[in-house]
Fold:
Amino acid sequence: MTQETRQRSALHAIAFFEATKGLAASAGLIGVLDLLHQDVRAVVMALIGRFGLDPEAHYPSLLLHYAELLPNADVHMLVALGLAYIALRFLEAAGLWLGKAWGEYLGALSGGVYIPFELIHLIHEPSVLNLSVVLVNVLIVGYLTHALWQRHQQRVRP
Structure:
């Protein structure tokens, strides 16, 4: 397998990952919009009960907290932000899949923005999952930065 084939495969894998995040965000946005027409707190309590979780535990209580905020949310802003995130993920995925430099820039920048926040979250709540999120993001941003550096070096050399 040539270097170019490996690089193209890596970019396709990252593109697939980003497109998957876009699909997940789409499903999440549809789910949130569907919840706006229901008693969100009752739905969350039913979910917590269904899975036998303690409502006072960290994540269930966090879910309940956001369930109480949702009915008062600015729906237009929520939809606008959700659609912007989804568009960014799909645009990034398309650029990476096609091997475009702008896709690599977009991926490195959009992924790099999250790293400080992910590190802060990891420090405050250390877990294997949080560490994995940081490592995957650092690897992706590092790889895309390396790919951009290689592009730059190819343009500089005759």
